[in-house]
Specification:
Largest interface: A-B, 19 and 19 residues
Radius of gyration of chain A: 13 Å
Structural class of chain A: mainly beta
Helix content of chain A: under 10%
Largest sheet of chain A: 5 strands, antiparallel
Shape of chain B: globular
Number of strands of chain A: 10
Order of helices and strands of chain A: EEEEEEEEEE
Structural class of chain B: mainly beta
Order of helices and strands of chain B: EEEEEEEEEE
Mean pLDDT of chain B: 93
Oligomer: heterodimer
Strand content of chain A: over 45%
Distance between the termini of chain A: 37 Å
Strand content of chain B: over 45%
Shape of chain A: globular
Number of strands of chain B: 10
Mean pLDDT of chain A: 93
Distance between the termini of chain B: 37 Å
Strand order of the largest sheet of chain A: 1-3-8-7-6
Helix content of chain B: under 10%
Low-confidence stretches of chain B: none
Low-confidence stretches of chain A: none
């Protein structure tokens, strides 16, 4: 089983749509969780951290379900500029400093 | 301020040659990571440096790979006797601490012919 599993997509949605991405992770000892965004042929950049109670940052909402080892990202009112690959990133349970990057879910927002 | 920089941005080398990749972290960042990203795949952890502690080399794929960092400054990743499967983007990231955001450099795209 992969350490982090994500639907590779692509998710092709119109501007203004709401889209949700899911991710499952295998290490129950993971303590920290992040969503990173990676544009084509660019480096990853942090989108948001994911907190146990769930958190929101503008149009973006992240949820964590520890029991199911499941993380989600919801994007409301999609913009063309949201087109990118979204990486689900838990840390390795045995060391807080090591992050496990998923292969990502690709999002295409069309006009 | 300046972000993480990496050089060269692109490197084409012949199979069997050695290459050296460089990373300049953000000033003041004590932790530095190297990752490898093959086309269409996720980031693969290679090595982690934290201050003057012994590095975590657990991700290095073979003894052809090595990395150095002096204090909290520049790091170099060296690949000896390159193979075609070494072709990938090599990304460096730095952070103020392990639980904090990792800032990535633009990467070095390595092609082994």
């Amino acid at each position: 089983r992969k350490e982090v599993e994500q639907d590779p997509g692509p998710f092709n949605v119109p501007e203004g749509a709401t889209v949700a991405f899911n991710c499952t992770y295998s290490n129950s000892a993971s303590q920290s969780f992040f969503w990173y965004r990676q544009d084509c042929r660019k480096e990853p950049k942090l989108l948001m951290s994911v907190y146990s109670s769930g958190n929101e940052d503008g149009r973006f909402t992240a949820q964590l379900n520890r029991a199911s080892q499941y993380i989600s990202l919801l994007i409301r009112d999609s913009k063309l500029s949201d087109s990118a690959t979204y990486l689900c990133v838990p840390n390795a349970g045995d060391s807080s400093y090591k992050l496990i990057f998923g292969s990502g879910t690709r999002l295409l927002v069309r006009p | 301020g300046a972000g993480v920089s990496q050089s060269p941005s692109n490197k084409v080398t012949e199979k069997g040659k050695d290459v050296e990749l460089r990373c300049d972290p953000i000033s003041g960042h004590t932790a530095l990571y190297w990752y490898r990203q093959r086309l269409g795949q996720g980031l693969e952890f290679l090595i982690y440096f934290q201050g003057n502690s012994a590095p975590d080399k657990s991700g290095l794929p073979s003894d052809r790979f090595s990395a150095e960092r002096t204090g909290e400054s520049v790091s170099t990743l060296t690949i000896q006797r390159t193979q075609q499967e070494d072709s990938a983007v090599y990304l460096c990231a730095s952070t103020v601490g392990p639980a904090y955001e990792q800032y990535f450099g633009p990467g070095t795209r390595l092609t082994v012919t």
